[in-house]
Design brief:
129 residues, three-stranded antiparallel β-sheet, 4 helices, 42% helix, elongated
Length: 129
């Protein structure tokens, strides 16, 4: 293990917990907004967000409007970004692969063995615990 990795290992739970909380909060906000009629206040936001009235062409997106500023937010996109940030950090944390390997990772690259997760990067199988 690299010295730089050893030094950063004790603080790894901090970003992992942060992205997990962000993912859960974004999913809860999206679920609450989806169950709110357009134009109504979204529950559990202390009156800060209102479900935006969107045109029918963008019906698959859930948007909200901040009451104080009028800024529109795409809650569907925020939830997706929070999920993928969580997924990337969990893959890095659980497999130990490098960023470069993560960017090249596909479902064909991962094989589940009896005790090890095998990640094939650069055409060379590498065992990761």
């Amino acid at each position: 293990m690299d010295q730089r990795t050893r030094e950063r290992l004790p603080v790894l739970p901090v970003p992992a917990d942060t992205v997990d909380r962000r993912r859960r909060a974004a999913a809860e906000l999206l679920a609450a907004a989806e169950h709110t009629r357009p134009g109504d206040l979204i529950p559990n936001t202390a009156g800060a967000l209102r479900r935006a009235v969107a045109p029918k062409a963008a019906g698959h997106l859930t948007r909200a409007e901040e009451i104080s500023t009028g800024r529109r937010r795409n809650l569907t996109n925020e939830e997706s970004e929070a999920f993928w940030a969580f997924a990337a950090i969990e893959v890095l944390r659980l497999t130990g692969i490098r960023n470069e390997e993560l960017l090249e990772l596909t479902h064909h690259s991962v094989t589940r063995g009896s005790r090890h997760l095998t990640v094939r990067a650069d055409r060379t199988p590498t065992k990761r615990m």
